[in-house]
Amino acid sequence: MKPVKIIAPAEAEFQEAMSWYRDRDARVAERFAAEAKRTLELIQEFPRIGGRVPEIDDPHVRRMPIHTFPYHIVFVELEKHIEVVAFAHNRRRPGYFVKRLRRA
Q1: What is the pTM of this model?
Q2: What is the mean pLDDT of the chain?
Q3: Is 7 strand, coil or helix?
Q4: CATH 3.30.2310.20 fits 4-91, yes or no
């Protein structure tokens, strides 16, 4: 199994979403964190899980929804690890994370 590494901008997005949910309901924030963790575990175990990212031709770049939340995790399978490049909201700024992708 390849390790999962979350780049700093993606970690900031996760923390921002956690803060938003926590401000409304701490229990929902904890559910979001648990579902995100479960999704990351699935990605680590099955790196080809999820769907291709629209308008990106690289089959190593994929996205996986976070169950019951309007977010998906965008990741790329690299040679030695899996890199999470975004915790992206389903309805905001599609494709903004493209500049974060590495292909090595």
Answers
A1: 0.92
A2: 93
A3: coil
A4: yes
